[in-house]
Each structure stands twice: as C-alpha cells, then as structure tokens.
Amino acid sequence: MGLLSLAIWTPILFGVVLLAIGRDEHAGMVRWIALIGALLGLAVTIPLYTGFEVGSAAMQFVEKAVWIERFNVHYHLAVDGISLWLVLLTAFITVIVVIASWESITERVNQYMGAFLILSGLMIGVFAAADAMLFYIFFEATLIPMYLIIGIWGGPNKIYAAFKFFLYTLLGSLLLLIALIYLYNVSGGTFDLAIWYQLPLSSAEQTLLFFAFFAAFAVKVPMWPVHTWLPDVHVEAPTGGSAVLAAIMLKLGAYGFLRFSLPILPDASQEWAGLMIGLSLVAVIYVGLVAMVQQDMKKLVAYSSVAHMGFVSLGFFLFNDLALAGAIVQMIAHGFVSAAMFLGIGVLYDRVHSREIADYGGVINTMPKFAAFALLFTMANAGLPGTAGFVGEWMVILGAVQVNFWVGLGAATALILGASYSLWMFKRVYLGAVANDNVKALLDINKREFFVMVLLAIMVLYMGVYPKPFTDVMMPSVTELLQHVAVSKLP
What we know:
The longest helix is centred in the C-terminal third of the chain and has 32 residues, at 321-352. Helix content is 75%, strand content 3%. It is globular, with a radius of gyration of 21 Å. By secondary structure, the chain is mainly α.
C-alpha cells in the first residue's frame, strides 16, 4: 500500500474500530485509540514531505489501479506542490482536534472520535484524488460525518444547522456530478483529470461547465452570496466541528477551483474572472463589516473566515503567480489560525457555557496564559506581520496591485477590517476589569489545553516568520498551472 493510501485509510480504519467499540463505559480507551489513530495518520504523511521532489511540478507518489472497469473509473491518487500541504494540514489538525476534544465530549465519545477520524481520511482523499469520480465520491462522503457531528453534538438548533449545511452543499454537488458525466462523455469515457486538462471545449461548453463547478465549489468555500449557511453551522457545531470545518472543509471548495475550473476551463475562467474578483472583494469588504457587529464570538470568527477565504478566491482569478501562490499560502495559514480561534472560543465555552461577548470582560486577569495565546491568534487573524495570517494576504495584495491597483486597494482594506473586528473582540473579552463572577471564577488553561495552544502557536509563528519551505514546494505547480490556464482550449 502506497503512502497516500496509508494517509487516507489509516484514520478511516481507526474510526471504524472506534465505532465498533461500544458505549461510553470505554470512553477512556476510546480517546487513547483515537489519539493513536490520529498520530499514526500524521506519521504516514511525513514521508510525503521528506520524500517530495522540490522543484518539480509533476504529480508524485502516484498510485493507480482499476476500480470500476465498466466505466473506466480508477483508484488513482497523486499529489503535487499544491495538494501536499493540504494533506499534511488535514492530518495535523486531526491530532489537534482529538486532543482538544479530550474532556469536552462526554457522550457517545466513540462515535464522535470515530466520525472525526473517518472525516479526516475522506478529506485527504479529496486532496489526493487524480480521478474525477474518485474525487467526487470523497468530496460527497465528507458530508456524512460532518452532518452527524453537527446534528448529534451541536447546540440547541443543531438539527436546523445540520440540515442547512447538508442541503446547501448537496444541491451544488448535483450540478458538479452532471458536469463530470458530461466531461466523461466528451473525453471518450475517462475520468482521468490529466486527460480532461487537454480537452478542446467550446466557449459555450466551458461557460456552462464553469457555473456547474461554481455551484459546487463556491458553496463550499463559501463565497458571497452563498455563504449564509456557514455562520449558522459554526454557532451550532461543537468546538472540534467548527475547527475542522474552518481549517479543512472550506478548503475543499477552493481546491476544486484549482483542480477543475482553472485547468479544464481556462477560457471560461478568464472570461468570468471579473465576476469572481467582484464576489471575492464583496466577501473581503462587506462580510468583514458584518463581522464587526457580531455579538457571538463564534459567529464573528465565522464571518471572518468568509472574509479570509475571499482572499483565496481573489488570488485564484488574478492569474498572477504571486497572487495564486499567496492564495494557496492563505489556505494553509487560515487552517492554523481559524482552528486556533475556534478552539480558543471552545476553551472559554467549556468554562462559562456562553459564546456571547457581553458575558465576558477582564479574562486576562484570571487566565493570563490563555490570554497571551489568544492575543497571538487574534493578531494572526488580523494579519499581523510575522504571523501566518499576514503572508498569504500580503502576497495576494501584491499580486492584485500588479494586475489592477484598485483591486489591490480593495483587498488591502481587509487588513484594516480584520484588525478592527479581531481587536474589538479581544478588547471586550479579555481586557479591563473582571466583569462578573463567572469570569472571576475562571481557571487558566490546563496542561492539555496549553499543549494544543503551543502546537498551533508554533505553526502560526513558523509560517509567518519563515514561509519559504511552503512556497518552495508549491511554486513549480503554481507556475505550471498558470501556463496551462494561459493556453486556450477552444477547438
């Protein structure tokens, strides 16, 4: 079995084992098995990085076997400099979430941990799939464990949120399936993405397929105006669910644009780039303003995620190597920062059982260690230089200015807005005098919570101070993708 297969199936196998263990009398053992499964899942991804040939744009660690011979569907896996980091990020965040959920989940622990591990394997499958049908199956399968995580362990309106999440994403995915079937027919009966990249498609075909892909991937990112499901889902999801949703699942849609829309439909991508840039700027500016007036911490960070992902979609459609690389860096950085933000809110919620900003104030007086981490992650969310949150956004802004000064200026306002809503929340929650008895009774983070915060802080600072290892791996693939987009596929 190849490394990519191990990365996919190790967490899934452990997840299935956890589901078979039974009820909560074995909760202690379940947690340790889940941690071992997550750590093994991370361990098998490390050789992907150490053995990766930096400087090559070729697909590496290729695995290919016939799966459904009748329809020419293959179990075809491979990664390049773009998908490698997303595989590693998924495995890393899974470990973080298992540790972070150690004490907060007390009911159906085996099902919770099992669902997360299975979800982890399925998401890695999305990033590693080189066969369109295999991609689609993994892409859709991720809905099931996340739906259960929200619907079983979520808040008071969890059923509504879970249904909204499933409905939004499923409807878009149906159009994706139609597009894949069409491409299968016009390509002579293959789902091989490499062959699809060479297809001569007419302008009308490309436009229709572009919007079919848009329906599936824009909802997942989510882009404005199909973002409305995200705040509701984040508010109701358990802390671990919010962390994985923001850190990884939103990237599935962005990754879809990179693997499908841009290389298969280069002419339509350039024709409709103005629309995509416009929608991205609305997300960056308008949704940033919406975040400023939120009273629920989770909802504020959820809107902040929409704004930050606006940078990602903006960078994709500027067709500039700096902007595209910056968008991919932003995907990785947002994974670390958003996970840290949501897990930090979870630390407070576990103690006070409220996410309302008004219920806090002066937390720094009773939780000084935690407040120091919260300040770091807040600054990263605001895009402070030296943190992961700055690198990708700055690259996208520089790339945007090279293409169009006004687009760059519009994108740059996000740094001001990001600082505004991030620091405004920090001030009201952490600074000042102790606001009430609940805050007065707070205990600072324990060793387990401290360990989680340290791991995330290391990644946020390392990526912010020294992003070269990340960009070195992805730049050859970025350059090749842009060269591919520049060549017309019109017949």
